[in-house]
Amino acid sequence: MDLSNVMMLLCGLGLFLFGMKLMGDGLEMAAGARLKSMVEKLTTNKYMGALVGLVVTAIIQSSSATTVMAVGFVNAGLMNLAQAVGVIMGANIGTTVTGLMIALKLNSLAPIAIFLGVVIMMFMKKAYHKHIGQIIIGFGILFFGMTVMSDSMKPLADDPTFTGLMTKFSNPLLGVLVGLVFTAVIQSSSASVGVLQALAGQGAIGLGSAVFVVYGQNIGTCVTALLACVGTSRTAKRTAVVHLLFNVIGTILFVIITLLLPFTEWIEAIFPGDTMMQISAVHICFNVVCTAILLPLSNYLVALACKVVPGKEEEREEMSFQYLDSRILSTPPIAVGQVTKEVSRMSEIARKSFSQAMDMLLKKDETMMDKLEKNENVLDFLNAGITEYLVKINALDIEDKDRELLGSMFHVVSDFERIGDHGINIGEIAQALEKSKIELSADAKAELEDLKKMVSSLLEDACSLFEKRGKDPELAERINRIEELIDERTEELKDKPYCAFE
Asked: Nearest-CA neighbor of 93 among 156, 38, 49, 37?
């Protein structure tokens, strides 16, 4: 194998990785809101989590990305460790889709797919159709890259030194180690399995040697999540450890099965003469069987992870994000959904701040000032943090409707922060009245209480309309009516002839 073959191999691998990323991004954007709704179901149970992990990974074409996203969700407090286990196991099954497509030998469709995808992207106007075009282009480039890799490896099949080296992979420890290291380096088990299938397609490696490499590849894919958990909470670190434990236990189990039982012979009998499909079958079998065995026993995996990463989880501070994490940015549609939740949380704090400020004014509750200041600090933190997060999301490839929503959020978070400022102002007025020994009259209190109810109703309806993305004309009309009533009532109270103090 000369230098030109090595260069073509690297070119093919690059095209393969790029095609997989392009196809995954297109699928992700096309799924859009449906992907967000799927993630909403993550919080039900571990079995639903496994299903969602499988589907999401099949869409974004990366179990590493799904696992990193799970680490981000746990770190943000969106899901607990037990729920994340299901997502991780489902992701491991979802990552076998790429290998299965390769085994079906769709290479001949690559030129047509690339041409068709380019035509769709150039001439279709709707964003959804452009995303479909992107999926088709990604599919074509992936298989074109696979063809380039396979062609560059043809000389290896006749190289006795290389074939002799490949037979040494039948040593379980060496095979697992090679698969682990190669996958850790290129950060993609799908790509490393694809390279292995390309070798098999040229007759350079047989299933007897490849099987242990496949097991090692499953461990190697854990490296991404382990790196992603640096600087996260203990629970997030345990999530990455669970991913590692799952694949290590699975590898030990399958190495024993392969050594003690005629496992490879069974696979070869099912798919005779097709080493690429045999490798894909082993990959699928590994992840499906391990999930079937370990998912019901996930509580023991969680307990083991807690021993590996000991200690008590710190209480989540109020001045922290509950739904946002930088790792979630790798999946833009889900990041949009998460930032919407964080803004909704901000709205609740702003409404609470207004209510507490009015209670302080009307009920002379001095303890409310500390709460108002605490709320104001949280609102300031969220305003700055969410704004920074919005800037990052806007730089990503997102749908036009999501970009429009994010644009409005810049104003919304600023408005919620101002409500907190007004709460502080009302609290300071209440303190000034108390210091001056001035009492509000009964009529003034009644009128202010009435105004408070109107403003509270307006805030609640406005926040509800925001969460519905403005898709409630009746609610919008009611908000306008209440706002006009508040303006009228405010002018009336300003013109009252009697003194509001006793």
From this structure: 49
d(CA 430, CA 218): 63
41: which residues sit within 8 A by CB, 6+ positions away?
48, 52
Does some domain include residue 396?
yes
Residues 70, 88 contacting (CB under 8 angstroms): yes
- Higher pLDDT pick, 496 / 171: 171
- Cα–Cα dist 130/145, whole Å: 22
Kindly give, in sequence order, each residue whose CB lies less than 8 Å from that of residue 244, ignoring residues fewer than 6 positions away: 219, 222, 225, 226
pTM: 0.69
Q: Let me know if 242 is exposed, middle or buried by CB neighbors in 10 A (0-12, 13-18, 19+).
A: buried
Residues 250 and 354 grouped into a single domain: no
Task: Tell whether 298 and 386 lie within a shared domain.
Answer: no
Residue 268 lies in a domain: yes
Q: Are residues 101 and 220 in the same domain?
A: yes
Q: Which of 213, 215, 246, 239 is nearest to 225 (CA)?
A: 239
94 with 56: CB under 8 angstroms? yes
Domain containing 431: what range? 326-494
Same domain, 268 and 398: no
Token couple for 167: 């037979």
Q: What would the pLDDT profile of 27-75 be if each residue is shown by its tens digit?
A: 666 665 566 566 655 555 778 778 878 877 777 667 777 777 777 777 7
Q: Which residues contact 476 (CB under 8 A, 6 or more apart)?
A: 465, 470
Q: What's the pLDDT tens digit per position in 383-409?
A: 999 999 888 888 887 777 778 888 888
Identify whether residues 119 and 225 lie together within a single domain: yes
Residues 303 and 336 occupy one common structural domain: no
Q: Please, which residues have CB within 8 angstroms of residue 59's CB and are 6 or more apart in sequence?
A: 24, 27, 28, 31, 35
Q: Looking at residue 158, what DSSP letter applies? A: G
Q: Quick one: 407 and 372 in the same domain?
A: yes
